[in-house]
Amino acid sequence: MMETRQLVVAGVALALVIGVTAVFFASGDPDGLESSAFYVQGEKTLTGDAPEEGDPEAIGAGTFAYEAPMPDYTLGEEAGKAGEVMAIIAGIVLSMVGVFAVARVAAAGRA
Amino acid sequence: MHIPDAFLPIGQAIVYWIIALVFFALALRWANRELNEARIPLVAVLAAGIFALQAFNLPIAMGTSGHLVGGALAAIVLGSPYGAVFILTLVLIIQGFIFGDGGITVMGANIINMGVIGGFVGFYSYQGLKAAFGSPYMSAGIAAWLACVIPALAASVELFFAGTFPLVPGLIAMGTYHAVIGVIEGAITAIALYLIATVRPDILAMPAGAVAS
């Protein structure tokens, strides 16, 4: 049976491989919600291709805008694929550290 | 399935945030009771894996792509729907604030759909299917499919109440695309459960060969 330390290392390594592979091989097609937005706007048939140009959020009426530091898992266009790899690694590390920290704090309050 | 800010009016978004915070508070109580020094690193690694898998969009035809959500996987591995709420809430916060994936005002709705509904549907359908059919991996795969499709249908209803999607076309589109994406969800969940049960069966709160009472 794998030791916890080995399992953590293997799990992080697997997450990094999946994340970095995603940068190069993930589909650029819209996701299910975005495709649905195109469909209800009449810009796409149910089974047809997504429009080349189009904004799935055009149907929305909200006005709130937020500028994320690494939008769409990138460090900006000029950073290219290297920036995307760094963004994904940052996300994986942040997810792990964030959940670890909150779990530690939550568990520490045990009576 | 990450709803962007533009899709929900602020009043409705606040209601979803309040509901989501109630469930996250319950998830913190679960973490307080169930997590210990040995289990916390494994929960953190599961979160890292779910983040990575959510970034990997696979083509599903119909001009659409999809990725794992992870609610069922987290709930089954951790033996509680609140495990899914705990992990998915924190992952969604990071995705929204750092990467702009999913809105800020609407984050409560995303937490409810993917964490709460995904976690509860995944966990309890796994329990029911496992009791009925016995096979843990087939049960996990079907439960994960349901935990992808039902939150998508819930999202389309929320978007109908928001006035963003018409009801029937929204349900048809969200249901169709996520029925296919759910196959990815089911396959990855079953494979991940198998791998974990193979290398460390002891960390499964609800062992793959048993049904939680």
Short description:
Chain A has 111 residues and is an all-alpha fold. Chain A contains three helices and no strands. In chain B, a hairpin with a 5-residue loop joins strand 1 (58-59) and strand 2.
Spell out the blueprint of helices and strands.
The complex is a heterodimer of chains A (111) and B (213).
Chain A: H1 4-25, H2 32-40, H3 80-108
Chain B: H1 10-34, H2 40-54, E1 58-59, E2 65-66, H3 71-78, H4 81-99, H5 107-133, H6 136-161, H7 167-199
Antiparallel strand pairs in B: 1-2
Helix pairs in contact in B: 1-4, 1-5, 2-4, 3-4, 3-5, 3-6, 3-7, 4-5, 5-6, 6-7
What would you say this structure looks like, in words?
The complex is a heterodimer of chains A (111) and B (213). Helix content of chain A is 54%, strand content 0%. With 111 residues, chain A is mostly helical. The model of chain A has no long low-confidence stretch (mean pLDDT 92). Chain A has helices at residues 4-25, 32-40, 80-108. Chain A has two domains: 1-30 and 69-111; 31-65, no CATH class. Chain B is mainly α and 213 residues long. In chain B, 72% of the residues lie in helices and 2% in strands. Chain B has a single domain, classed as Arp2/3 complex 21 kDa subunit ARPC3 (Orthogonal Bundle), CATH 1.10.1760.20. Chain B has a two-stranded antiparallel sheet with strand order 1-2. Chain B is built from seven helices and two strands. Chain B is globular and about 45 Å long. The chains are: A mainly alpha (111), B mainly alpha (213). Chains A and B meet through helix 1, helix 2 and helix 3 of A and helix 1, helix 2, strand 1, strand 2 and helix 4 of B.
